[in-house]
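[Automated response] Your request has been received and processed.

Submitted sequence:
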Amino acid sequence: MAIGKPNTSHVLLTLGVLFTIGGATRFLPNDLAFAENTKAAPETDTAAAPAKTDIKAATDAAQGGPQEVCFTTESAALVAEDQWLFESQKEELKQEQLALKAWEKELENQTVELQTLQATLEERWKEIQAASDNDIRHLAQMYSVMKPDQAATIFNQMDPSFAAGFLRLMNSEQAGLILANMESKKAYVVSVRLASMNADVRNAPNNG
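Generated structure:
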């Protein structure tokens, strides 16, 4: 019996050690797997983070939400140059508009001056025409009181149209006497001119 006790104790000690080792071995793979999962988790989160960021950026762009834009020094310089060009063109356009308005005003003034000058010329022409008509009437009266043969000598030297104008202002009897004393060919031409006067009025259709 004394010999059997040590053997029993040794066997129990050996079994306890085996159980301890077995339990440790059983839990060790789980601990290793947990540790690996713990190390891999940050990598998964890091990989997923850009995807979430990209999705948010795409969502903001689709919804027209505010987005941050980073300008480099070169981009900022280009924007400043475009702004300067825009302001320069705007100022040039303003100056052109002012010049156009000034030109329009000058054109209006010149138009008024031309209209005034035209009215003055027309009025002066009427005065000259009236004076000329008065002179023609006065000469016609002078030729009327002259002897027919003396007046005919003068009329022979006149242009036929001019002579016809004088005769038209005289009474028919005096004009006929002058024509009778004129050269026959000249008298014929003057008579034709007299007949052609106011032909447009005579040939107009009778509206009555």
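Summary generated for your ticket: Confidence is low (pLDDT under 50) at residues 1-6, 39-52. The longest helix spans residues 73-145.
If you did not submit this request, please reply to this message.
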